[in-house]
Specification:
This protein has about 300 residues and is of the alpha+beta class. About 30% of the residues lie in helices and about 30% in strands. The chain has 8 helices and 16 strands. The chain has a 5-stranded antiparallel beta sheet. The two termini are about 45 Å apart.
Length: about 300
């Protein structure tokens, strides 16, 4: 990672990577390969999340030891970022990804900026402060052992209660006890028989696959005629979304049609293939009653 203000040569003592990079998927297979390569460069692994034609890339650990992140590794890291942009849809990438490399006396702070179809690293150097160096050299302290049996007897149930609370806070209990997918209602909304979708449950999530319906339009003329016959704005908007390949919302509903969760997907792949399916995931919930395709996002709760 070099520019007019280069970082010191050699490997830093620690690397801090924060922020995220997102955009639209161009070449999915190439994107996955690039992310794996990025994670092997020495700055830690990265997680790739893909939903409805969009992807997000973020570091798994925000701080890693810098012993493997020498000059060559930094060059590989930047090259892998270039490849990620190349595997994305042109002009769709946005990022606030940043990296801080802590050396013995100097800290190099780099902000990655998208310039057209490339990533440009902007780096500045400053003297290292005690706050930068604090805790880098000190090994983690071992937890004290030798607890008496009596102390362990009350500690175990306390930890169990805390564990259940954390699972509940994280939504895992909801997911484990969520309703079976085949028991939930399915509504294509204003899209009618133009679109259809299947739902399965996997690891506490609902996996929704949207595809062409029985009456999916076969030509622009079909879309124009349907829009002309629409009796309300919602149906007219649905015609535009399908005909132009725009975004729609897959919603998980609860009691009284309340939207519990939703995901935005891009239906453009359906334009080119009758076999195309667009997959997205929604979290499992005990109070779920059904799914709905919607032309608009649900209002945010205040």
């Amino acid at each position: 990672m070099s520019d007019a203000t280069p970082a010191p040569s050699g490997a830093p003592r620690a690397v801090f990577v924060e922020g995220l990079l997102d955009g639209r998927v161009g070449d999915g297979a190439r994107l996955s390969t690039c992310v794996r390569t990025l994670g092997l460069a020495g700055a830690g692994a990265f997680r790739l999340d893909v939903q409805g034609g969009r992807f997000s890339l973020l570091p798994v650990d925000t701080v890693v030891t810098g012993t493997q992140f020498d000059d060559a590794a930094q060059a590989r890291f930047l090259e892998a970022l270039h490849e990620v942009v190349a595997a994305s849809a042109p002009g769709s990438v946005e990022t606030n990804l940043r990296c801080r490399m802590v050396f013995a006396d100097v800290v190099a702070e780099t902000l990655f900026v998208v310039r057209g179809n490339t990533i440009e690293p902007l780096t500045r150097r400053r003297p290292a402060t005690p706050a930068d160096l604090a805790g880098l050299a000190a090994p983690p302290q071992a937890l004290p052992l030798g607890l008496r049996r009596r102390e362990l007897m009350w500690l175990v149930p306390v930890l169990a209660v805390v564990g259940v609370f954390l699972l509940w806070q994280g939504g895992w209990i909801d997911r484990v006890l969520s309703a079976r997918a085949e028991e939930l209602n399915r509504d294509t909304g204003a899209f009618g028989t133009w679109l259809a979708f299947d739902v399965d449950r996997s690891w506490g999530n609902y996996v929704v696959k949207v595809k062409r319906g029985a009456d999916y339009p076969q030509s622009p003329a079909d879309v124009t005629a349907a829009k002309a016959a629409a009796t309300d704005l919602t149906r007219a908007s649905a015609c535009d979304i399908v005909g132009d390949g725009r975004d729609l919302y897959v919603q998980l509903l609860g009691a009284e049609q309340k939207v519990l969760a939703e995901s935005r997907i891009d239906v453009r792949p359906l334009l080119g293939s009758s076999a195309a399916e667009i997959e997205t995931r929604l979290p499992g919930m005990m109070g779920a009653t059904g799914f709905r395709l919607s032309v608009q996002q649900a209002p945010k709760s205040k």
